[in-house]
Amino acid sequence: MKPKTIVVCIKQVPETNEVTIDPQTHNLDRRGLAGIMNPFDKNAVEQALQLADQTPAKVVLLSMGPDDYAESLREGMAMGADAGYLLSDRAFAGADTLATGYVIAQAIKQIGEVDLVLFGRQAVDADTGQVGPIVAEFLHQPQITYAASLRLSGDNEITAERLLEDTKQTLVAQLPAVVTVRSELNTPRYPTPRNIQLSFEKPLTIWHHDDLDLDDSRLGQAGSPTIVTKVYEPKPTKRELTSLTGTPTEAASQLIKALKAHQLI
Amino acid sequence: MSKPELWVIAERRLDHVEPTTFQLLTKARQLAGDRFHTVAILFEATNDHLETELQPYAPDEIRIVRDDRFPTATDAEHADALAQLVAQYQPNSILFGATITGRSIAPRLQAKLLTGLTADCLDLRFDDETLVATKPSYGDNIMCEIICPDHRPQMATVRPNTFVAEPATGTAELTPVTVAFHPVERLQVKTATPVVNTATTVGDASRVVALGRGAANTATIDTATRLAEKLGGRIGVSRPLTDLDRFTHDDQIGQSGNTIHPDLILNFGISGAVQYLVGMQSAKTIVAVNSDSNAPIFDVADYGYVGDANAFMTALLAQFV
Ligand SMILES: Cc1cc2nc3c(=O)[nH]c(=O)nc-3n(C[C@H](O)[C@H](O)[C@H](O)COP(=O)(O)OP(=O)(O)OC[C@H]3O[C@@H](n4cnc5c(N)ncnc54)[C@H](O)[C@@H]3O)c2cc1C
Ligand SMILES: Cc1cc2nc3c(=O)[nH]c(=O)nc-3n(C[C@H](O)[C@H](O)[C@H](O)COP(=O)(O)OP(=O)(O)OC[C@H]3O[C@@H](n4cnc5c(N)ncnc54)[C@H](O)[C@@H]3O)c2cc1C
User: Fold this and answer.
1) Nearest bound ligand to CA B292?
2) pLDDT per residue over B232-258, tens digit each?
3) For residue range B139-154, what is the model confidence (pLDDT) as tens digits?
4) Which residues are CB-contacts of A197 (< 8 A; sequence separation ≥ 6)?
5) Ligand 2 lined by B269 (C-beta under 6 Å)
6) Which atom of ligand 1 is nearest to the CA of A225?
7) Are residues B102 and B212 in the same domain?
8) CA distance B307 to A5
9) CATH class (in words) of the domain with range A5-218
10) How many domains does chain B have?
11) A50 and chain B: CB distance < 8 Å anywhere?
12) Which pLDDT belongs to residue A221?
């Protein structure tokens, strides 16, 4: 049997969500924030490695982003993945989920004969969770989102459990297929020192614009239907505060009066 | 010229309509005024009558696809059917609940239509015919406004319980529509077991006694339990308290818990982090008790007391008759 090819898509995100807005430019101030692999994507890498324990398979990581995203790819290879592809080009910058999904789908076609594509549940920075289903559609493949468990159940078949708000589903898909995973499905392994060392010998390929078959009108900002028009820190609507004063007993009696006046008690 | 259409995709939850659908229908009516034609899109089996659940929220029209295969259809099959309806009616905008189902079908449809989709929105408005969607990012630390100026339809998924469902007067026109069902043979739903969740959540209560890390000892929780009983309400908690055995995620208020709209909420020992506030700031009356006069919770409170949580609660209980 031919070894399977499993692609895991990973995004690099700021290490903390404590971002602020630059008061001058009104842009997000991400200065000094180191990048890490999107935590949910580690579950996808872990799942791919577990599947590769079940059947001969090559685990390939794929990321679209600036050159420093290579760090997350190395991290994934240190967990045990076999190879990494970085899709890096100025033309890809400013992409929304549609334009991101397009480039990722074209790269997956270019890798060729991919049996399974795994995604994290969502990126913790932009929080959309849209890229997985978009790629599935562009590849014309069945999708299983929010998988709570995933295993190979036949030569060319996967079985997943999916937890909807009111229903637990068991789904069976013929490969090739696209799956997005929940964090509950596994605990990602830590890179071992040996695997860290090995990761530097594993192939990391960088693909630029001309390495892929792309329709330029679908790339980057130009290929993105959505535009972020305003970014701000949420300021909860301030209310007129009436202070309750004195001892707890005095303050409680003031509150009771007020609640009665509003017919709340 | 006919009015542009604003669609709400009705979601099914077992044998009923998922409540987010009603919230979206209410919001759609408010947004529409007399400028838009509001339409609920409903897929149901031949013997279902889920439109009766939609009618009280009075969309202008309910388009019904009756086909026994849809209630159990997969994401791609749903997206395919919706794409056919979009091609036929050319809506201006489409709203989905940001439930697991909505967040799975909407991006698949987006990719078919090559248009924009804004995720998990907390607010919506129209500037002329452009939908301005407000979405949180970075774990709700940042809000952004997103538009999709040049592509139609404009699409958004909206976080459950962001808007309050309110029945309205008006008669929805019922229109049966047909679409071709294109089965995806390579994906089968083998089993579907209802997960019966009978636990009520803090979201169901009209009066809430909310406890945070400053009101987490056993004595305080006991006092709060009695206070909640007296008020005919329920206890809710900030996230750190879900680590205690007495509380679960069903009790949690906030971004990663429940979004609630009670008439009254009393907050004890809660600092007022944004992730907490987004879950409760639309409460009608907000009371805060905190030992720190600078706690951010006081910024959103109508009534505030600087002092010990348990002492205040005990005094309050003593004065209830
Ligand atoms: C504040 C903010 C809000 C935004 N809101 C929206 C919005 O509402 N709608 C919209 O269309 N765009 C939005 N964007 C743009 C969006 O962040 C980018 O398109 C991004 O490249 C992909 O979307 P995501 O981060 O939401 O990923 P998600 O869709 O949440 O990611 C899901 C999974 O896809 C994979 N993945 C995601 N990005 C990559 C990548 N670059 N390389 C490899 N794999 C990847 C990972 O496996 C990840 O776990 C927003 C951007 C910002 C900064
Ligand atoms: C992605 C993300 C999602 C999150 N989602 C949620 C969520 O859904 N819900 C949520 O609640 N949090 C959430 N959080 C966590 C949130 O940021 C805060 O950490 C949390 O709300 C703090 O809870 P607290 O107010 O109970 O505790 P603290 O911030 O520790 O506040 C305790 C307060 O009690 C006061 N106090 C101490 N002793 C007393 C006393 N004896 N009497 C009266 N007052 C006293 C203190 O002055 C202080 O203000 C989330 C965080 C992230 C990053």
Assistant:
1) 2
2) 999 999 999 999 999 998 899 998 889
3) 778 899 999 999 999 9
4) none
5) yes
6) 11
7) no
8) 61
9) alpha beta
10) 2
11) no
12) 94
